[in-house]
């Protein structure tokens, strides 16, 4: 019985080694995973129109992790096209220097990339690099009561609204599918996405505008299934 089990295990391992993941033209690969957007933000100063002006060093944006849904199609044995999609990311925004909560923003950053697979058509690990374009939809911006309170105290503002412009930019990426069987693999991937936006805080006594580079590193840890 023990021998049968170890024979079966040997056959299974041999099968994995023989069949594993030779991506070819016409294959679809669906990657699903925990996708983290980690902003590497660089914000302009926020200048409030008090007399004299109140200058705040900028804003910071925290990380968020969502479900990544990442289909890829092999155009040839070595070139694929991939769409990074995910459930919406929500990030808290803080005002630097004074440490108050500014609010939160939600965004979707779909990214379409051309990818090169140096070992496409061959069995084994499938590393890849890619270059792409990103469009980030930023919506559902909320002002935190802490920012609303500060604006009321400093400017006498009784209403405040936060908005951030959408962004269009380039993305670079690298990743690898590590085969578990002919069709299943573990996926590890990283993107750097150029996301530049302009933030506006509109109040009933005036509008404050400043540029924010969000420029996140995006990480995916998940599985890949080849059809
Ligand atoms: Ni940028």
CATH architecture: Beta Barrel
What are the bound molecules?
nickel (II) ion
Helices, by number, come to: 2
Order of helices and strands: HEEEEEEEEEEEHEEEEEE
Q: Could you characterize the architecture of this molecule?
A:
- This protein is mainly β and 227 residues long.
- It has a single domain (2-226), classed as Porin.
- 13% of the residues lie in helices and 59% in strands.
- The strands form three sheets. The chain has an eight-stranded antiparallel β-barrel.
- Strand 15 (196-203) and strand 16 form a beta hairpin.
- The longest helix has 18 residues, at 2-19.
- The relative contact order is 0.22.
- The mean pLDDT is 92.
- Nickel (II) ion (NI) is lined by residues 194, 196, 213, 215.
């Amino acid at each position: 019985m023990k021998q049968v089990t170890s024979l079966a295990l040997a056959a299974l391992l041999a099968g994995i080694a023989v069949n594993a993941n030779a991506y070819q033209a016409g294959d679809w690969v669906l990657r699903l995973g925990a996708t983290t957007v980690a902003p590497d933000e660089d914000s302009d100063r926020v200048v409030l129109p008090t007399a004299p002006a109140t200058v705040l060093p900028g804003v910071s944006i925290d990380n968020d992790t969502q479900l990544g849904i990442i289909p890829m199609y092999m155009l040839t044995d070595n070139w694929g096209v991939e769409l990074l999609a995910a459930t919406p990311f929500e990030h808290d925004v803080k005002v630097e220097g004074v440490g108050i909560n500014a609010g939160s923003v939600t965004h979707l950053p779909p990214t379409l990339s051309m990818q090169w697979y140096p070992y496409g058509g061959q069995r084994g690990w499938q590393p890849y690099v890619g270059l792409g374009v990103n469009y980030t939809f930023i919506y559902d911006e909320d002002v935190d009561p802490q920012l609303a309170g500060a604006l009321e105290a400093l400017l006498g503002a009784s209403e405040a609204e936060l908005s951030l412009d959408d962004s269009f930019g380039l993305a670079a990426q690298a990743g690898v599918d590590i085969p578990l069987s002919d069709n299943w693999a573990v996926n590890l991937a990283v993107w750097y996405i150029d996301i530049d936006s302009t933030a506006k805080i509109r109040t009933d006594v005036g509008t404050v505008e400043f540029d924010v580079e969000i420029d996140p590193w995006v990480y995916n840890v998940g599985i890949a299934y080849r059809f």
